[in-house]
């Protein structure tokens, strides 16, 4: 079993550590250094990738509330919301900005007040590796992989919200990441990490962990049978009952593909086998995940559904940011319920387990096919149950390769997108 790549319970310092496959003398068999993060009394510089998206805007809210604690070193956005990005530049005065859409660069330079504005994939990667204390990757989708690799290669501490980059590039990311270099932003993985930290020494002993329990809200269609999902519309699928998220994550939560991705992510982050990662439906979204230990004890993390809490924990790690989110009101009566996942109506999690077990490029195919199928569903070319059915068909046709290089991953991604478009008439 490899060393987990999430941050340990001890406060990070300047340490020379070996990458996970160093003992085998592989390509990462060199000492890697995780930089020391400033203490609570010292300002931290943060690069926010995906600054105009849901995670990015909430991260900037956390930063804005703590001006003496955090400062923005760089911003990266796709370029589709130039007015919002211009306001962010004016408010935070970063050292550098990049937009993936090069066509948006000239107009942004006119309003950037002298802040350098870079464009295209090369510009995004340059800012992802920019000198700073923490890079928060809030980019949505497989396009975030190169930014994750750039930040890790530059030795930055990575606050990872872009789960897709870890899932599709698992071997690449794990080879680059030193133990403690990745801080999970997803509420479920943040919860698991906090449960393991809270357990003390037993939380660092894989043999003491019976299983990880990942919670799911169940989405807007919880309780419906598969036959009842055929007529679901995009508008209905975008109405998440508890979380306020971007459209892709919201749709993935409706199909439970997002939960499938999170199961693969948990396996990669914590090195717990798939047969010891359970999913349970918890509609109230207050228990964000749990860790069950071999002695029968379960440690859970609870807070209202607010992404600013896990975001603040990564930015302030290992110290907590006061007032990042409202706590549970323990003076009021609460009813929290848990129920098993209906794999027949929502087969995405079972498919993700299969894909994760295959490894290599299979997770990249799962993710890429799903992104195309979501577009087809929104465009009216695919019924709601057809999203996961089509993803499964693409996965079945795929001939897995090891995913040891970026080129292998991107080739699998492109192949899956082409097959999915064929099947959906895109």
Rough shape? Answer: globular
SSE pattern, N- to C-terminal: EEEHEHEHEHEHEHHEHEHHHEEEHEHHHH
The first-to-last residue Cα distance is: 42 Å
Strand count = 14
Chain oligomer state: single chain
Largest sheet: 7 strands, parallel
Radius of gyration: 21 Å
Strand content: 15-25%
Secondary-structure content class: alpha/beta
Please, how many helices?
Answer: 16
Low-confidence stretches: 9-30
Give the overall pLDDT as a whole number.
91
Fraction of helical residues: 25-40%
Strand order of the largest sheet: 6-5-4-3-7-8-9
Quick description:
This protein has 426 residues and is an alpha/beta fold. It has helices spanning 54-65, 82-92, 105-111, 120-128, 145-153, 163-168, 170-176, 187-198, 234-237, 247-255, 257-270, 308-316, 348-358, 362-378, 384-397, 406-424, and strands at 15-18, 31-34, 44-49, 70-77, 96-99, 117-119, 134-137, 157-160, 182-184, 209-216, 277-281, 287-293, 298-302, 339-340.
Structural features, described:
It is globular and about 55 Å long. The chain has helices at residues 54-65, 82-92, 105-111, 120-128, 145-153, 163-168, 170-176, 187-198, 234-237, 247-255, 257-270, 308-316, 348-358, 362-378, 384-397, 406-424; strands at 15-18, 31-34, 44-49, 70-77, 96-99, 117-119, 134-137, 157-160, 182-184, 209-216, 277-281, 287-293, 298-302, 339-340. By secondary structure, it is an alpha/beta fold.
Name its key features.
16% strand, single chain, 16 helices, seven-stranded parallel sheet, alpha/beta, globular, 14 strands, five-stranded mixed sheet, 426 residues
SSE map:
Layout: E1 15-18, E2 31-34, E3 44-49, H1 54-65, E4 70-77, H2 82-92, E5 96-99, H3 105-111, E6 117-119, H4 120-128, E7 134-137, H5 145-153, E8 157-160, H6 163-168, H7 170-176, E9 182-184, H8 187-198, E10 209-216, H9 234-237, H10 247-255, H11 257-270, E11 277-281, E12 287-293, E13 298-302, H12 308-316, E14 339-340, H13 348-358, H14 362-378, H15 384-397, H16 406-424
Parallel strand pairs: 3-4, 3-7, 4-5, 5-6, 7-8, 8-9, 10-11
Antiparallel strand pairs: 1-2, 10-12, 11-14, 12-13
Helix pairs in contact: 4-5, 11-13, 14-15, 14-16, 15-16
């Amino acid at each position: 079993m490899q060393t987990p790549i999430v941050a340990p319970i001890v406060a990070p310092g300047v340490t020379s550590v070996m990458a996970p496959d160093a003992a085998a003398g592989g390509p990462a068999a060199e000492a890697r250094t995780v930089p020391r993060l400033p203490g609570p009394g010292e300002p931290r510089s943060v690069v926010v990738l995906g600054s105009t998206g849901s995670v990015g805007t909430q991260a900037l809210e956390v930063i804005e509330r703590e001006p003496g604690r955090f400062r923005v070193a760089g911003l990266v956005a796709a370029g589709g919301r130039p007015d919002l990005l211009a306001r962010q530049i004016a408010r935070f005065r970063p050292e550098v900005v990049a937009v993936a859409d090069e066509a948006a660069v000239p107009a942004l330079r006119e309003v950037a007040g002298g802040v350098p504005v870079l464009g295209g994939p090369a510009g995004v990667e340059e800012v992802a590796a920019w000198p700073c204390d923490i890079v928060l990757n809030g980019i949505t989708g497989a396009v975030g992989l190169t930014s994750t690799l750039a930040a890790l290669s530059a030795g930055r501490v990575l606050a990872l919200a872009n789960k897709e980059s870890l899932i599709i590039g698992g071997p690449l990311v794990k080879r680059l990441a030193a133990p403690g270099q990745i801080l999970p932003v997803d509420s479920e993985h943040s919860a698991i990490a906090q449960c393991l930290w809270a357990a003390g020494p037993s939380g660092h002993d894989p043999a003491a962990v019976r299983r990880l329990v990942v919670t799911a809200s169940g989405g807007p269609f919880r309780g419906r049978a598969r036959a009842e999902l055929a007529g679901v519309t995009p508008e209905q699928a975008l109405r998440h009952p508890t979380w306020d998220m971007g459209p892709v994550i919201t749709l993935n939560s409706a199909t439970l593909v997002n939960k499938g991705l999170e199961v693969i992510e948990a396996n990669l982050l914590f090195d717990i086998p798939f047969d010891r990662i359970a999913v349970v439906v918890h509609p109230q979204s207050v228990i964000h995940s749990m860790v069950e230990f071999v002695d029968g004890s379960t440690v859970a993390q609870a807070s209202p559904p607010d992404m600013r809490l896990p975001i603040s924990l990564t930015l302030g790690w290992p110290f907590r940011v006061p007032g990042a989110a409202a706590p549970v009101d323990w003076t009021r009566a609460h009813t929290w319920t848990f129920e098993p996942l209906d794999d027949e109506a929502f087969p995405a999690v079972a498919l993700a387990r299969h894909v994760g077990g295959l490894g290599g490029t299979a997770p990249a195919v799962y993710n890429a096919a799903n992104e195309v199928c979501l577009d087809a569903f929104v465009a009216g070319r695919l019924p709601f149950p057809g999203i996961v059915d089509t993803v499964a068909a693409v996965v079945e046709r795929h001939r897995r390769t090891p995913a040891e290089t970026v080129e292998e991953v991107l080739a699998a991604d492109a192949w899956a997108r082409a097959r999915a478009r064929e099947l959906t008439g895109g």
